[in-house]
Amino acid sequence: MSASTLTIKDLHVSIEGKEILKGVNLEVKGGEIHAIMGPNGTGKSTLSAAIMGHPKYEVTSGSISFDGEDVLDMEVDERARVGLFLAMQYPSEISGVTNAEFLRSAINARREEGDEISLMKFIRQMDKQMEFLEMSEDMSQRYLNEGFSGGEKKRNEILQLMMIQPKIAILDEIDSGLDIDALKVVSKGINEMRGEDFGCLIITHYQRLLNYITPDFVHVMMQGRVVKSGGPELAARLESEGYDWIKQELGIEDETVGQEA
Amino acid sequence: MTTVTKLSVEKEYINTYSQQNNEPAWLTEKRNQAFDGLDAIPMPKPDKTKIDKWNFTNFSSHVVKSEAYASFEELPEAVKPLINLEENNNLYIQRNNTPAFFSLSEELKAQGVIFTDLFTAAREHSDLVEKYFMKSGVKADEHRLAALHAALVNGGAFLYVPKNVEVKQPIQAIFIQDNPDTTLFNHVLIVAEDNSHVTYVENYISTVESNQGVANIITEVIANANAHVAFGAVDTLSAGFTTYVNRRGVAGRDARIEWALGLMNDGHTISDNTTYLMGDGSFGDTKSVVVGRGEQKQNFTTQIIHHGLRSEGYILKHGVVKDNSTIIFNGIGKIEHGASKANAEQESRVLILSEKARGDANPILLIDEDDVTAGHAASVGRVDPLQLYYLMSRGITKQDAERLVITGFLAPVVNQLPVEGVKKQLAEVIERKVR
Questions:
Q1: Do A102 and B391 make contact, defined as CB atoms within 8 angstroms?
Q2: Which of A11, A138, A157, A224 falls 20 to 30 Å from B230 in CA-CA distance?
Q3: Which UniProt keywords apply (chain A) (predicted)?
Q4: Can you give the residue range of the structural domain that contains B257?
Q5: Does the complex come out with an ipTM higher than 0.95?
Q6: Of B279, B300, B322, which residue is a domain's last?
């Protein structure tokens, strides 16, 4: 396996006719951890949804490519199989489908027919990762996200990340609604994934998560664009000073795109 | 008076049949009474489905004679996986209209449990059968299909669990149709006496297509005080059958009846599943899953009628409909005057998989008492695109994602069935039908 590259060029995205992203440029490579920060309503979650192919978001111009391949030409499942992963802010609940059954389907979707993962091997892997993420054993037989607490859902997203081992993962507000213990566990999972072949785009509006996961690059989104990029020191400054200095520097009055993210 | 019911048999035939069966006089009399009343009693009127052109009366032969199965090996291949004789040897198999295989553990026999075909029971335990057969459950004069059933009953089973007996292993019945001319007027009667506990599961299974078959099936479950009956069923009658199936429960004081019904017939079907919560503190839970495909028209009415104080009733119905098929769900929670502190809850959902398929979910609450709680949820719609998006974002193809959502949607009954082989069979039938 080698490092992959996700390239986003001048991306414009609308939802129900309203433009949310107004020209996003970004490149994430294997081995790099990027954080996208910004206040609510600036387009951060829209970016993640557009990369994965959420049915309600329409890309009106610009491009997304993965190792040179046009991502916008791919169905959602194809995007996942080339190596993209999105840990969702609000994962769907699917009644009647156990967590284990779902994850096995996800893993087998990447394997040839006749070369499916053996049940024993799968259970071993899943048990191991669940233990690492301090998840209770019954989580494997519970229905996918049904009745999960906020924290359980987030852990479950990280469990999927660790089982599926994507090349580039986008984590959309993986830290929201987590208490400090859960935040530590989730961070532990992400850090475990760190490596030359794994790239990650962390979307957050709290600096808190970045105390546990040190990013290589930090970007600030406002008004549907990346307005500032820097290293980990940028996150530290945002933590102590907030966003107002950036708004002043760039002459921005209302940082939102008029839409709750 | 003109004859509105054109039947394939005459009264004389019914008397001869009853005689040949060595039936007790009360049963012959019951048949005659029902037959005489046929024209005066109206057809049932399932809400939102017109059945006046459906064929419930014209069949090629009332009884098909079949060989019994001498051993397990002779059973049809489709039936063998339903049975695990090592785990469960309380079994009745009926082949068309012929009792074809019996097995009941010595332990249960010693405890006084009766499990046999309906006519053997009527001969050997006449008083017991007479006491309950079409008395407090389904009455022969309710409507014309019930009367027709009483007049023509041609098979079925009787299960009796005496007071304080807890039957640990499930009791299993399998009704096989392997002749195109089979007509099913099948009656299952389950009586659970005070403080008893039993789990019963039945299959209606076709191994051949039916030649304009008529199925008029009635099941009565009588749970006396503090008894607990868990009832499972998987119906897979072939497309040629027009089916009327009525599963009725009567729960006494503190009794529980739990239904898990996989209603997977391939032909036109009218299903009525009603539970009377007669006793104080009685409990009824009914889960049904259905699939409609092809040109099938199906109507499923589920009712729980509360008479007892603090009685609790729960209805869950999930249906998937595709091709040109129609399914109607009528869910009725009825709380009678005096049933205070009763709770009636229901959920009916239909997933529509194709443009021409139709589905309807009608939740109805009829409440004649002030101090009660009740609730309902109903929906008719397509597979949620956000669920598909979520599954596909993990690499699962759209087709597999849909399959997961649909089978998950129909899982509540699969999970509740007591026999592993039957559970697996329902899961497979669902997979095959929704594909």
A1: yes
A2: A138
A3: ATP-binding, Nucleotide-binding
A4: 11-279
A5: yes
A6: B279
Chain B residues touching A52 at Cβ < 8 A: 389, 393
Asked if B393's CB is within 8 angstroms of A75's CB, the reply is no
Q: What is the pLDDT of residues B157-188, one digit of tens each?
A: 999 999 999 999 999 999 999 999 999 999 99
Whether this model's pTM surpasses 0.80: yes
- Is residue A40 one of the residues assigned to a domain? yes
* Position A124 in a domain: no
Using the 3D structure, point to which of B279, B302, B321 is the last residue of a domain.
Answer: B279
State the nearest Cα–Cα gap between B23 and chain A, in angstroms. Answer: 47
pLDDT at A209 exceeding the cut of 50: yes
How many domains in chain B?
Answer: 2
Any domain includes B285:
no
pLDDT exceeds 80 at position B189? yes
Beta-carbon pairs below 8 A across chains A and B: 81
Separation CA A138–CA B34 (nearest Å): 55
Express each pLDDT in B91-139 by its tens digit: 999 999 999 999 999 999 999 999 999 999 999 999 999 999 999 999 9
Instruction: State whether A54 and B389 contact (CB < 8 Å).
Output: yes
